[in-house]
Specification:
This protein is an alpha+beta fold and about 150 residues long. Helix content is about 30%, strand content about 30%.
């Protein structure tokens, strides 16, 4: 069984729960274990929130208004990718841990805790950031679309 979808979303806060609900609905319908679905939905929310907040300005007067979310459920693996058209990451941007009570700066750390494999980088050519993460899926016993 293989399912994939891609969304082109405006950089607005309202787009984050939209992407999260679509992912949760897809995984529930397919029969993915709810705990795995929840972990992936939180990681997706963090990646989308980062794209909304940081993924817009590439230079003076140049603003990107959208970002892309792609999800692949293929066999026993789910891969999610969030790409924006902002300035991307620089070598001087290593993720730094935020304080425990911080309201910002914890997104990439949460993604790393919730996913099995995480890649953070820049889009080749046109610029922008890409955050992709994978997680091994577990299936409910009554899963209608269980992987073969």
């Amino acid at each position: 069984m293989s399912i994939w979808w891609s969304l082109h979303l405006r950089r607005e806060a309202a787009s984050v729960p939209l992407a999260r609900r679509l992912l949760l609905g897809t995984m529930e319908t397919a029969g993915v274990d709810p705990d795995i679905s929840y972990d992936l939905s939180v990681a997706l929310s963090e990646a989308c929130a980062n794209a909304v907040e940081h993924g817009g300005h590439r230079g003076p007067g140049d603003c990107a208004e959208a970002y892309r979310v792609t999800a692949y459920l293929d066999g026993q693996m789910c891969r999610i990718e969030v790409a924006d058209a902002g300035p991307g990451f620089t070598a001087a941007d290593p993720p730094r841990p935020a304080h425990d009570d911080a309201e910002h700066g914890r997104g990439l750390f949460l993604i790393r805790e919730l996913a099995d494999h995480v890649h953070v980088g820049n889009k080749p050519g046109r610029g922008g950031a890409v955050v992709s993460f994978d997680k091994i899926l577990k299936w409910r016993e009554d899963a209608p679309l269980v992987a073969v």
